[in-house]
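Suppose you are handed a protein chain with no further information: no name, no annotation, nothing but its sequence. What can you learn? This example shows the usual starting point.
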Amino acid sequence: MNRLAARRRARQSGDDSVLPLINVVFLLLIFFMLAGRLASGDPFEIAPPKSLTDGDPRAQEMLVLLSGDGRIAVDGEVVEREALAGVLKTASAAQVRLKADGGVNAVEVVALMELLRDAGVESLDLLTLPAAR
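A reasonable first move is to predict its three-dimensional structure. Written in structure tokens, the prediction is:
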């Protein structure tokens, strides 16, 4: 009888190690079924018009950074304030995103925004973080 009890225990312990794996696979299946439904498609087929410009529309967007000590960077390259207008005109960026350090004086941010406007920027987005509640 000792052997029969040992076989039953061995069989049960093997089944016990598979059950958590089955639970995880089942939960993943449910997750991916729900996640797939979150991205719903358009209700009907649309053929967008062709663009006259080549390339990615985001390529015409620039990111301007203003650090706490007054340094300026355009798309990851440090630029002097005097050369900023020339860089923007050669890149012909219609839309600029401005990301300024929170410690920068508001007067400096406004002066930079005016410089960007004078350089021909048509659309300017000032990036901020929402206030903590």
